[in-house]
Amino acid sequence: MQARNKVGRGVGQGSSSLTFSGVGKLVITSFRMKTYYPVVQALRGLATALVCFYHFVAYSDFRGVLFESDSVLKRLANACTGSVFIFFVLSAFVLPMSLLQKDGWKGFVPFMVRRIIRIEIPYILSIVLILVVGFLFAKKNHIDFVIDLDRLLHHLTYSIPFSQYEWHNIIFWTLAIECQFYLMVGLFFVVRSWGCRPLNYALIAAFAISGCFVQDHRLIFYYSPIFILGVLFLLIRMNNISLRMGMIAIWLTMIVIVHYHGLQIAAYSTFTLVAIQFGDRVWKYANTLGDMSYSIYLTHGISGGHVLYFF
């Protein structure tokens, strides 16, 4: 979800080549690759804010709900559920680009080391925080508190969906899918190092269509059409595929997303691509929120939930 590097921070510049054809018709004639996308951090911040807004409005406890199901805020919140998939599109665009800048497979191992430091450690700390709060609540209410080591191990290996346990924090499911994507990208760059270009494209195509056949939401293949959007957009930007072929592939992928995941997720995915393409402005406060987005994403449930519980 984070995959933060020079893509979101800045090293080089570039731009799209735009022309006007006819009366008021905007045509994208070519792409030039760039490595600085200031909007990436802003999109992370926006996605996090929308997820937090949804969970705030959807909050409920033994006293009831904050907002009735027919309220305006509840309807607005329901329109935010697909915002979490912004993270998937961003990861599919940013991660391969980052590895290409770092010599592909050779850069994967140090990238994963940085990922462990930047993503796994905060993830583990958020689990510790949940357990500490659970212990304090158990002590306050004079009930036993037991740490299930088997459940904890499943959390550390992102295998909760394949066990009888539930996540300590429901949003952890997205981290499990992202972890699968990271591993798949790593394997792809191993194959890419063999130098067989047709095989590379065959693997990308196989991953793209896997979402039409694998309907198990525990596996990344179920979400492959969403991830493949970011990959296709990157291939266009790098001129690895023609603009026409890339746009056709993106439109076909959108149809698949609408069919299997719904119009809302397709809309958020499209918005992400458009924002990456045209969002060259640096949004100071949005970027600041983006810097904090992962920490907020991990802890907003337990922090916000307990604030609402006591007040």
Terminal CA distance reads 32 Å
Low-confidence runs: 2-32
Strand content: 5-15%
Biggest sheet strand line-up: 1-2
* Form type: globular
Mean pLDDT: 84
Helix content: 55-70%
Number of strands: 4
Secondary-structure element string: HEEHEEHHHHHHHHHH
Main beta sheet: strand number and arrangement? 2 strands, antiparallel
Main structural class: mainly alpha
Describe this structure in words.
This protein is mostly helical. The chain is 64% helix and 5% strand. It has 12 helices and 4 strands. A hairpin with a 3-residue loop joins strand 1 and strand 2. The N terminus is likely disordered.
Secondary-structure blueprint:
Elements (H helix, E strand, L loop, with lengths): L5 H4 L6 E6 L3 E7 L7 H19 L2 E2 L2 E2 L6 H7 L6 H17 L6 H33 L8 H8 L15 H21 L4 H14 L13 H14 L5 H19 L1 H16 L5 H27 L1
Antiparallel strand pairs: 1-2, 3-4
Helix pairs in contact: 2-3, 2-4, 2-12, 4-7, 4-9, 4-11, 5-12, 8-9, 9-10, 9-11, 10-11
Please sum up the structure shown.
With 311 residues, the protein is mainly α. The protein has helices at residues 6-9, 39-57, 72-78, 85-101, 108-140, 149-156, 172-192, 197-210, 224-237, 243-261, 263-278, 284-310; strands spanning 16-21, 25-31, 60-61, 64-65. It has 12 helices and 4 strands.
Which key phrases capture this entry?
two-stranded antiparallel ribbon; mainly alpha; 311 residues; 12 helices; disordered N terminus
